[in-house]
Design goal:
Length: about 800
């Protein structure tokens, strides 16, 4: 790898799924995995194309029960382009001798380049070079250029090339889902619209989304067309003179019935591919679009961390680009790179939006509007529980209903088990947190006063109505939930799932209630009156919010914050024994279940739970929230809490290393860099044991970017100012990046040894107030301020 490319040398079938995910190309509207075009889906390869927000629902028979799941749909495959010489067998790296194979992902240009040399008879070789793009300038276009060259010999070689649009695809990219129904496409039809141009249309079986693709094949030879439903095929025969390169270009247009400003997806796809420029012109527009996006988001971090961060940034940008601002979509936990988690939206936006807020606030706003459009569904979910307000689902998809499956498979035991993760009601707090953070960073008062306020108030209403008064404690409690840990979903021996007083849930609920009350105070009076009348909010309810926000119970044991009430009574796990017996204990829950035991019995966490509070809130803000609740948590208590859970966490999530690295760096503890490195390597090294091949971990990737943007700088956007409290790591002590803050474009920050530099570009905006622990600084537009930091 270099700072501008990500490269793989040699062909290794065992690595293909991982490479396909990390070499996927997208533009925020759709993405295609980095599979080789001549290879079909099998145990080695998995070509997949996914349009953001294109879901379908199917019912399967599992363990004697009917199970309904909604999935991000694998669309018809536009990639297929295979080749053979002189009528022989089709050439693939799996079936023909490979002399050389290299893939290069060009991060600056969003271009995937592939070079392969196949051995031919008589000592000759066929060199294949391909360049692929999913166009950032036009979100509905993609293109594939293939250059063929025969090396050696003196005679011409005949080359057959077959290109296709394949509508016979299924969702089969995740092995543990293969017992579930995966045929989402129906009514597949193909046709020819012009010489060299074919089309395919189909629709999803339940959601009835119409999908259309049209592809144009260009070569220095006649292109023949044939149709073998569910595929549209194009054939061309080339004569290759040794040493002379022959080029075939394939251009595709993709549309669905969810697209705005079209009447018919098929007509739109045919018209778009007909009007599309040639490969060179399309590439030029694509390069310009990427250059503009990099200017807004680039970061300058030296060494290997910087190279990995650029790869992470590339994947975040091509999943959630400015094109996303026009779509009704959320943050898919695994990007648009595969079918893991069924393409669902969880709480990962909690790790993604803080980065986007300071670079692409229009994208953050669109992602929050996805949540607002589903506010009524969240209110319906709350009513179904007999509660007021809004309860957002743990897993979301097309329409905002709860998509969490009722059963999940343990691959170790082969058993299907109940899935209680829908009890993670804390996702509502994540939505509220993102609303507040976005408005603080962007200064978007209009959003806060309208859609943002509506979400904040309804989420606060849910938490207040979920709180139960306990006379013995003289406090409110929230019962029967799950925290972010995910290992614990019930008490040992209990009949009903759920845990009481999860500390993360209760503290964030108190924070939401406080922010909702603050929002009511700062709303313009006419808007406040309008909102109060519309949602039926009265003074008594606001008094209840005030009371609950000050009296929610936070359990403690052994001088540390308890993950939940009763956590201290659980058994200790023999961690050394399990580490000796198993190479990898990240998924300790699966190991214990396969042994006939349950992780619910032990003080063991999959990922950060209590410690997530230190990720969301600065030390000052966390103390403020707990002070309001009547708890005093000093540095010693927090450090004991950090050490306590660090020793009892298996890090079964890619987010865990990120959070622990963030926390340890903020408290200046040794080991911080070890966890930061794990977060950086989570996908490139596939530390979760094969999961990256099913789709990247978008939250972890964005979180590493935010680590250098906010975590190590202590950057906060609150009270109309930029707050800074740097805690540089020796391994990451000098770097720079630019942000967009409240109308200031391209504010540059650079961390250095013993100091920080802030440069504000010239504009007619107000100066930026910068607050540090020991002083306040006002930086005028056009000025650069050099801040000397205490050791």
């Amino acid at each position: 790898m270099t700072g501008r490319t990500w490269e793989y040398d040699g062909y290794r079938p065992a690595d293909e799924r991982l490479r396909e995910s990390l070499c996927a190309l997208g533009n925020g509207y759709f993405a295609t995995r980095g599979a080789l075009p001549e290879c079909a889906a099998d145990d080695v390869h998995y070509p997949g194309t996914y349009v953001a927000g294109c879901y379908n629902r199917l019912t399967s028979r599992v363990a004697g029960r009917r199970v309904e799941n909604e999935d991000l749909v694998n669309l018809p495959n536009w990639l297929p382009l295979r080749f053979r010489t002189d009528g022989g067998a089709w050439l693939t790296p799996d079936t023909a001798p490979v002399l050389e194979h290299r893939q290069v992902l060009h991060l600056e240009s969003g271009l995937l380049e592939r070079r392969t040399r196949f051995a031919l008879d008589g000592g000759r070789a066929l060199s294949v070079r391909q360049q692929r793009l999913v166009c950032l300038a036009d979100a509905h276009l993609a293109a594939l250029r293939t250059e063929f060259t025969v090396e050696g010999g003196t005679e011409d070689v005949g080359l057959d090339v077959e290109a296709a649009l394949d509508g016979g695809v299924v969702n089969a990219g995740v092995r543990r889902y293969r017992d579930l129904e995966g045929r989402h496409l129906t009514h597949v039809h193909t046709g020819t619209s012009a010489p060299g141009t074919v089309w395919l249309r189909c629709r999803t079986r339940t959601s009835d989304i119409r999908i259309a693709m049209a592809t144009r094949l260009t070569a220095d030879a006649p292109v023949a067309t044939r149709h073998e439903p569910p595929r549209a095929l194009q054939d061309v025969t080339l004569r290759l003179t040794p040493g002379r390169t022959v080029t075939v270009d394939k251009t595709v247009a993709v549309h669905t019935s969810r697209d705005p400003a079209i009447s018919d997806p098929l007509r739109a796809a045919i018209d778009r591919v007909a009007a599309a420029a040639g490969f060179e012109e399309l590439l030029e527009a694509h390069l310009t679009a990427w250059d503009l996006m990099w200017r807004r988001a680039d970061l300058d971090v030296p060494g290997e961390p910087g190279r990995i961060l650029r790869l992470h940034l590339f994947h975040v940008l091509q999943t959630l680009s400015p094109h996303t601002a026009d779509l009704d979509v959320g943050v898919p936990a695994r990007g648009l790179h595969g079918e893991a988690y069924r393409g669902h939206v969880f709480w990962d936006e909690l790790f993604v939006l803080p980065y986007l807020n300071l670079h692409f606030p229009e994208v953050s706003r669109a992602l929050l509007r996805y949540r607002h459009r589903r506010l009524e569904a969240a209110r319906s979910a709350a009513r179904a529980l007999g509660r007021r307000g809004a309860m957002y689902p743990w897993q979301s998809g097309s329409d905002g209903r709860e998509e969490t499956q009722r059963l999940h498979l343990n691959p170790r035991s082969g058993r299907w088990l109940p899935d209680n993760s829908r009890l993670q009601h804390h996702v509502g707090s994540a939505v509220a947190y993102n609303v507040w953070q976005y408005c603080e960073a962007s200064g978007d008062a209009e959003f806060l006063h309208t859609k943002g306020a509506e979400m904040l108030l309804q989420i606060a209403r849910f938490w207040a109505d979920s709180a139960t008064w306990d006379d013995s404690l003289r406090r409110h409690r929230i019962l029967g939930v799950m925290g972010p840990d995910e290992y614990h979903d019930t008490y040992p021996g209990a009949v009903r799932p759920g845990l009481d007083d999860n500390a993360y849930t209760n503290v964030t609920a108190a924070w939401v209630l406080t922010r909702a009350l603050e929002t009511m105070r700062i709303l313009p009076e006419p808007r406040r009156r309008e909102l109060v009348e519309r949602i039926g909010l009265d003074g008594g309810e606001l008094e209840q919010w005030e009371d609950v926000s000050r009296t929610l119970y936070v359990p403690f044991h052994d001088g540390v914050v308890s993950q939940f009430e009763g956590y201290g009574d659980l058994a200790e796990l023999d961690w050394d024994d399990y580490r000796k017996r198993y190479d990898d204990i990240r998924r300790l829950d699966r190991i214990l279940e396969a042994e006939g035991d349950s992780v619910n019995r032990y003080k063991a966490s999959k990922q950060a739970d209590v410690l997530m509070l230190g990720y969301l809130f600065s030390p000052c803000e966390l103390r403020s929230v707990l002070d309001r609740l009547g708890y005093r948590i000093d540095d010693d208590v927090w450090l004991r809490t950090v050490d306590y859970y660090l020793a009892r966490t298996s890090h079964g999530s890619t987010l865990s290393g990120l959070v622990h690295g963030w926390i340890l760096s903020r408290v200046r503890r040794s080991g911080a860099w070890t966890y930061c490195q794990e977060a950086l390597r989570a996908d490139i090294a596939d530390v979760q044991g094969g999961t990256t091949g099913e789709g990247i971990h978008l939250g972890a990737m964005a979180g590493t970017l935010d680590l250098v943007q906010r975590g190590l700088t202590g950057l906060e956007t609150r009270e109309g100012a930029l707050w800074l409290d740097p805690v540089p790591l020796p391994e990451l002590s000098s770097y720079g990046f630019a942000i967009r803050y409240q109308g200031h474009w391209g504010v540059r920050l650079r961390m250095g040894h013993g100091g920080m530099e802030i440069a504000v570009p010239p504009s007619d905006r107000s100066p930026i107030e910068v607050r540090l622990a020991d002083r306040d600084v006002c930086v005028q537009p056009g000025e650069t301020s050099h801040l000397v930091l205490p050791e």
